[in-house]
Design goal:
Helices cover about 50% and strands about 10% of the residues. It contains 14 helices and seven strands.
Length: about 350
C-alpha cells in the first residue's frame, strides 16, 4: 500500500489500470460491428467478454461515461447469468465516480461485494478493488469497520496490515466500541514497523496508540477532578519542597520534559528524573496565576529557580481524554514540563 509518501488505496487509479489492461489487440472493427457481434447468442463466453470489454474501453477512452453506464446496465439486466457481471458493475461504478457521483458508485460497489462472488480479472480481485474504493468513499464508521475487517481477513497479502489496524481502531472509537478499539491498537503496536510508519491523516499514530494502551493499563491515581485542585496541589508541593509528592502528581504515562522546540515523539523527551534532582538547594517560585495561553483543555504554570542552566520551567497540565472510562474522562493531569521561556 503506501509508506511515507504513499496514499491509502489508489483505488480509482487501480480500477483504471485494470480496465486498460483488459484491452484486446487493436482492431479495425467499428463499435457498431462489435455491438452486432454481441447479438450472436452462440458467441463463446470469453469472446463475449472481450467484445464487451473492447466496447467499454473505447467508451472510457472517449469519456462517454453516461453512455457506458446505459450500455453496461442494459447488458447486465438482459444477461443476469454472465459470470463477468461483477466486473461490468465495477466498471459502471467507476463511470459514476468519473461523473462525480460518489453516492451511486458506493451503492454499486456495495452491490458487488454483497451479491456477487469475487472474480479475478487479469490477476486483479474485483472485491478487493471494491473494498478499496469503499474505504475512500464511505463515511459510515460501521461500514468502514466491516470493510477494514474484510481487507485484513481476506486480503492480508494485498494490504498494509499495520496501517489498517490503526484505521480500524479509529473507526471502533467512533462507534464507542472501546474493547475492540484497544484490541486493534494493541495489535498495531505489536507490528515491527509500528513506530516508523507514517499514516496520512494520523500523524502520531504510534504515540497516540501507545499512550492509550499504557494509560488504560495504569492506575490513573495521579489525576485530579478539577484543574484548580491539581494546580493548588502542585503549588503546595513546590512551596513545601515536597519532591516526593510532586513525583506522585506527575503523570505515570508519557510524562515529558523538553524544550519548546522539541517534539513529544522524540525519545529523549520522556522525563527520567526525580523532582528532588532540581529542588534541593534551589529557591523555586511560581506565578500566582496560570499563563494566559491556558485553554479549557490545557494549562501552563510558569515557575523558576530550578537551575542556573535552565531557570524557567512551564508546568503543563491537560484534561484527560479517556472516554473509555467516564470516571476518568475529563479529569486533569500534570502531563509534562517545558524548559525555558515560551517561544
Amino acid at each position: 500500500m503506501f509508506k511515507k509518501t504513499r496514499i491509502l488505496f489508489l483505488a480509482a487509479l487501480s480500477v483504471s489500470l485494470l480496465f486498460s489492461s483488459c484491452s484486446v489487440k487493436k482492431q479495425t472493427d467499428t463499435r457498431e460491428h462489435l455491438v452486432t457481434l454481441l447479438q450472436d447468442e452462440t458467441l463463446a463466453e470469453e469472446s463475449r467478454f472481450s467484445v464487451i470489454n473492447q466496447i467499454a474501453q473505447n467508451m472510457l477512452n472517449s469519456k462517454e461515461y453516461h453512455g457506458l453506464i446505459v450500455f453496461l446496465t442494459n447488458y447486465i439486466n438482459s444477461h443476469q447469468d454472465d459470470k463477468y457481471n461483477s466486473y461490468w458493475l465495477l466498471m459502471t461504478a467507476y463511470s459514476y465516480q468519473k461523473l462525480g457521483n460518489e453516492s451511486v458508485a458506493e451503492r454499486y460497489f456495495e452491490r458487488i461485494i454483497k451479491n456477487y462472488d469475487d472474480l479475478i480479472v487479469k490477476g486483479n480481485s474485483v472485491h478487493l478493488l471494491c473494498l478499496q474504493n469503499l474505504i475512500q468513499i464511505s463515511t459510515n464508521p460501521q461500514d468502514r469497520v466491516d470493510y477494514f475487517t474484510r481487507l485484513l481477513a481476506e486480503y492480508p497479502d494485498d494490504v498494509n496490515r499495520t496501517e489498517l489496524l490503526v484505521r480500524l481502531a479509529v473507526e471502533y472509537e467512533k462507534l464507542g466500541e472501546w474493547t475492540q478499539s484497544l484490541k486493534s491498537y494493541s495489535d498495531f503496536l505489536e507490528r515491527s514497523d509500528a513506530a516508523e510508519i507514517q499514516i496520512a491523516g494520523i500523524p502520531s499514530a504510534y504515540t497516540d496508540a501507545k499512550y492509550l494502551i499504557d494509560f488504560n493499563k495504569s492506575s490513573k491515581d495521579w489525576t485530579f477532578e478539577t484543574l484548580d485542585d491539581l494546580v493548588a496541589s502542585v503549588k503546595r508541593g513546590i512551596s513545601w519542597y515536597d519532591y516526593n509528592t510532586l513525583d506522585k502528581y506527575r503523570s505515570k504515562v508519557n510524562f515529558f520534559s523538553m524544550s519548546w522546540r522539541q517534539s513529544q515523539d522524540m525519545e529523549n523527551s520522556i522525563a527520567n528524573f526525580s523532582m528532588r534532582d532540581f529542588m534541593q538547594g534551589n529557591r523555586i517560585r511560581y506565578n500566582a496565576d496560570l499563563d494566559n495561553s491556558t485553554t479549557p483543555n490545557e494549562a501552563y504554570l510558569r515557575t523558576w529557580g530550578w537551575s542556573s542552566y535552565v531557570n524557567v520551567w512551564y508546568l503543563y497540565f491537560r484534561k484527560v481524554n479517556f472516554p473509555i472510562d467516564p470516571e476518568i474522562h475529563g479529569r486533569w493531569e500534570w502531563a509534562g514540563i517545558y524548559f525555558g521561556e515560551k517561544l
